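Lab notebook: predicted structure, single chain.

Context: the supervisor wants predicted structures on file for every construct in the current expression panel, including those that have not yet been purified. This is the next one on the list. No modifications to the sequence; it matches the entry in the shared construct table.
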Amino acid sequence: MVLAAPRVQGLEPAESLAARLVVIKGFLEPEPMLGAVERQLGALGVCAEVKLGRRRVIRIRDKTVVGFGLRLSGLAPEASIAMQEQGLGGRRRFGCGLLQPSRHPIPADRRPLG
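Prediction complete. Output recorded below exactly as produced.
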């Protein structure tokens, strides 16, 4: 198998960002996790609508890591770039909390949790 040369692509602002898995230590249930996400966003000065996805569990070596899918919408361009640069939560070196432009915006008739 031959791999292609890597491509470098700059960050672009997007109104909606999503992460497959966001982990915040000690938060294993949806309601407390939602509060923890909102507190972290507030500390970063980011205003967004938050929608938690389904609960996900992964194993890293001998540890079980619990997190949730996450979608942020209604982001200002500066906040979108900042969130893509910084990510959210922990375990980022394992790919958790990395936010990317969402391919599927939240429908207007669906309300986010919280």
